[in-house]
Structures are given as C-alpha cells and as structure tokens.
Design goal:
Blueprint (H helix, E strand, L loop, with lengths): L3 E3 L9 H14 L5 H13 L21 E7 L6 E7 L7 E4 L3 E7 L2 E11 L2 E12 L4 E4 L5 E6 L5 E7 L3 H4 L3 E5 L8
Parallel strand pairs: 1-2
Antiparallel strand pairs: 2-3, 3-10, 4-11, 5-8, 5-10, 6-7, 6-9
Bound molecules: fe (ii) ion.
Length: 190
C-alpha cells in the first residue's frame, strides 16, 4: 500500500503547538538514550498534546478517500526523528508491517484498532501469529522499538481518526516508516 505524503520542510506550516511538541521531542532525542527509553519518553511527551484543536492545521486533518494519509509535520535536519499526522477515514487500514526505527503513536481524534503479531519459526521459514487486539482511544499513546513491532492499524470508528506519530528516522527522505510489509496470515480477513 502506498501512503499519500504531503511533505513539509522543517518548520514550515505547522502550528505553534506543534512547534512546541517538536522542541520537546528534540530535547528527549538529544539525551541519547536507548531506543526503548527514547520511545517511552517521547510518548509521554506527546500525551499532553493530543486532542488539542490547536495542534494541527486544517490541511493536516484532511484525509484521502483512497487510503490513509500521511502529513509530515517535521523531519529533523540531522535525520534523528520525524513527526507525522496520519488521517484515517472509516475502515482505512495499514498493511501488516514493522518499522525502520523506534516509533511512537498517539490518538488525536477518534479511535484506532490495532492487531499485533509475532513471527513464529517454522523450519527454515516463519509464519505470523496474532498475539493481541488493542483498541486505542482518544488520548492514548504507545511507544515501541524493533524488533517485535509487527502490527496492523485501522480506523474502526464511524468518523475520521487522526493519530500523531514520532519516528526515530527521516520520514521525508524514506517516504515511510515501514520497514517491511508482511502477507496476511491464511484465513485472516483482509
Ligand atoms: Fe506501525
């Protein structure tokens, strides 16, 4: 699945509140902690910004009828982190995927559902097994670092859902935070 990207250069067309979030995340990243701890602290930083109507511009809340949409709010000059808003119309979802770096997600509007998976070795290969179904309500945050970060996210509510994500990578350069897309397990509805 290709995600629509609305690229923003660093510091351009973001709200003062988003600028404050970015400054706080920059301070967290500058501490040079482990990916796990950086993700945890960035998630706690993000929490207090979620649901605030002043965080995103109207443009950054716009979806795409064809697929979930990514608005890049910021990519740090040195590539150390990026902040994006993902907009999901009802029923839209990601493929099953994992990530190139540590990752934080917080629900800014609506509600998102997530299915988590693990890779189960099977001879020389491996298959995916679902481990957990999670509903992430407005204001919830989670932070994680690879490996063990395989999941699928979807908007299971009736309105538009928006989540803010922070990645320890340069999403403007990469175009996405997705490292690998996995085929859906046999028998699981797509
Ligand atoms: Fe993800």
């Amino acid at each position: 699945m290709t995600v629509t990207t609305t690229a923003r250069t660093s510091g351009a067309r973001i709200t003062p509140l988003a600028a404050a979030l970015i400054a706080e995340v920059r301070a967290v990243v500058a501490r040079g902690l482990t990916p796990e701890l950086t993700a945890y602290l960035a998630a706690e930083t993000l929490r207090s910004y979620l649901g605030n109507a002043d965080l995103l511009t109207l443009d950054q809340c716009e979806g795409d009828p064809d697929r979930y949409r990514q608005h890049v709010l910021h990519a740090e000059e040195d590539g150390s982190f990026s902040v994006v808003a993902l907009v999901w119309l009802p029923g839209q979802r990601t493929p099953i995927h994992d990530h190139v770096s540590w990752c934080v997600a917080g629900v800014h509007q609506g509600e998102e559902s997530e299915r988590r998976y693990r890779l189960v070795p099977e001879g020389d290969a491996a298959h995916l097994a679902p481990t957990e179904d999670v509903v992430n309500p407005l204001g919830s945050v989670c932070g994680f670092a690879p490996p063990g970060d395989i999941h699928e996210v979807r908007n299971s509510c009736t309105g538009t859902a928006i989540s803010v994500h922070i990645y320890g990578a340069d999403v403007l350069r990469l175009g996405t935070s997705i490292r690998r897309v996995y085929p859906r397990p046999e028998g699981e509805r797509g």
